[in-house]
Every structure is written in structure tokens, then in C-alpha cells.
Amino acid sequence: MTQEIDLEILKSYSKGTNVYFPDDEVAWIQAVIESENIDSEARSFKLSCKAVSGRIIEFTTSFDEILKSKNDVLPPLCNPPILEGIDDLTSLSHLHEPAVLHNLKIRYGMRNIYTYSGIVLVAMNPFSRVQLYSQDILEAYAGRMRGEMEPHLFAIAEDAYQGMIRDYKNQTIIVSGESGAGKTVSAKYIIRYFASAHEDSRDSSTNPQGVISQVEEMILATNPVLESFGNAKTTRNDNSSRFGKYLEIEFNKKRHICGANIKTYLLERSRLVYQPPNERNYHIFYQLIAAIPQDKREI
């Protein structure tokens, strides 16, 4: 018995519809359908499309292949223009790899490096300074619900902070990504947010607004020390973390930071004795040498 295909799905691929096709240079390329043919007798489906580059793309598949792949063999559909650059990927009508990449590209072109994907924040490293972390912007996110402001690290940090004081439960923020994605810098800004976003809740007699406590200063000061001993220059990242870090920030009942625990793990010990070509050892060795006066370096 031949399994029947849902023709309503194929009718989505009508003339004028935009779709994606794989591309060797840019991963995915958009194209508009110029003609389509559904042949029920031959059990085949054909599309003739014109890519944005002007190239004509002919697509042919069989009903059996469509059924076998559960429609995955069909070209992914583009989202309507009104959804381009939307700040939450889960709001896309068609959620698949090319749609995600296209939306992130649009937002990056608008200098929006942060995008939500549900409860997850996707961050794109611009490899340049951006004016997104000033004290004014930091304070603007304090006390605001996620969704009221543009996607941002500060919104994620505020969400965790509010969850802690509202539900009296421990909160966890996981910063993950490949080398050079911006994990180290992101973690720094999250710590800074916790240290200074809710200064108005402090006792002004002991902690004037704008002045962080000694404990908070000590937490922020751990970053350069840990980076000196655990970061190194690689071919992909001049300040690549070669270890994992687990940081616990403790708050007291008055919502003030009162302590922290830092655990490190999986240090790349082999880098101490061998560095790949065009890479360096840990920063600390170069910093020690740089601190030696020029006239004493021969010693």
C-alpha cells in the first residue's frame, strides 16, 4: 500500500514564495519560486526558483523521498518580512537553521548583538567595542521584566536576581559557546550587574549610592587574576580561557552581596610545556617578564 502525501504541504510552495537553498559560500541562499509542478501520477514534485544572485535553481524530488525524510528534503520556507529582525527566535513562523541564521544576520546588521531564543540569550561577538554596558544602560534594566527592554545580558542577570528575591531560590546562569564567542566578557558584565544594579536597595549610611562594597570589589578583582593564570592567546582568540570556571555569588537577607566561591576545573595543563604554532603560553609568564626592568632582564 502506497503511503499518501499531504498535498497541502506542497501547496505552500506556490509561485512567489521565498525559500532557502544550501550554498557553498554563504551556507544558505534565498530564492523565489517562479513555477511549481505537482505530478500525482509520477509522484514527483518540481520547483523552478530564482536566487537573489540571479541564478536559476531547479529542484526535483519524489513523493517517496518527501515521506521518507518527513518533509525535511523540501526547501525551508522563508519567514514573512514583518518577522525579519525579530528579537525572539521562537516567534518566527518557520523555525529552522537558515531562518535562525538569517534573523541573527539581520539583527547583527542593525548592531543588535543579542537575541532571545525563549529563555536563552544568543550573543554574537562583534569583536569591537559597543556602547551597551554603560552605567545608564545597566540601571535601565534594574527592576524591569524581561521583554520590556531589548535583549541583553543585563536582562538575563535581572531575571535571575528577581527570581532569587521573589522565589527565594538559587539561580543559575550558564555561559557557553566556542572559543572567541565572548564568554569571558559576558561573565564579567553579569558579575558587574549584580555588583551595582540595585545600589538603591543598600543602606545609604554604610554604602552610598555609586560605591560598591569591599566584597563586590574583591569579586570583580578576581577576573584579571584568573585570566592571567588561565587565559592564553590562541589563533582564534587573544584572550582565550583555557579552563572552566564555576562562580557562586552569595547574597544576604538584605539582598547585598556578602561573599563568593570560585572553583576552577579542566585547566589545559599541556599548554605549560607545549604551545601550538602561532599560539602562546599563559599570560602570567609574559606579564612577569614585562614587569622586569629592561636593564635586569639579562639576569
From TrEMBL:
Gene3D superfamilies: Kinesin motor domain (3.40.850.10)
Record family assignment: Belongs to the TRAFAC class myosin-kinesin ATPase superfamily. Myosin family.
Alphabetically ordered keywords of this record: Actin-binding, ATP-binding, Motor protein, Myosin, Nucleotide-binding
A single cellular component GO annotation: cytoplasm
Residue span, Myosin motor domain: 84-299
Molecular function, one GO term: actin filament binding
UniProt key word Nucleotide-binding: yes
Source lineage: Eukaryota, Fungi, Fungi incertae sedis, Zoopagomycota, Kickxellomycotina
Pfam families: Myosin_head
Domain of life of the source: Eukaryota
One of the GO biological process terms: actin filament organization
Binding residues annotated for ATP, in chain numbering: 177-184
Protein name listed in UniProt: Myosin-2
Transmembrane feature ranges: none
Keyword Nucleotide-binding (UniProt): yes
UniProt xrefs under PANTHER family: DILUTE CLASS UNCONVENTIONAL MYOSIN, ISOFORM C, MYOSIN
